[in-house]
Amino acid sequence: MIQISFIAGMRSNPGLGLYNASKFALKGLSEALALERKHLNIHVTLIEPGPFRTDWAGTSSVRSGKIIKEYDSVAGERIRIINDYNGKQPGDPLKAAKAIISVVNSDSPPLRLVLGKIELDGIKDKIMSAEKEMSSWEKVSLNTEFDEEV
Which domains does the chain have, with CATH numbers? Predict the structure, then answer.
């Protein structure tokens, strides 16, 4: 089973909250399905592409016509970046398709296949940031359990 995710399922961006939520949910569902189907030898792979030259940011993109000026410097800026990036994305869709076919034909496909440098760097950054945050708050995290008498 192939699921198409995106960095939006790992790291949120302003202006893309609903999209981020759907991709986070897809990842959770896919991870559970992979565990539930493992004994049946049914594989689940999340394809996590970075920006590819598709119509995702072009005419297939639907946005609200209402602009809220208080959000323009954050969410509005993200939308402008996406609009300006359209047609200039570094990812080649044909190469992505070949990579996905290699997963489909694999006897041992990965749970996740990250496609593209931007996506790979973004996921690595998110993991490092989460690790740093957890480490700095580890004492607080560990101090929430019952004090058991031994």
Answer: 2-142 (3.40.50.720)
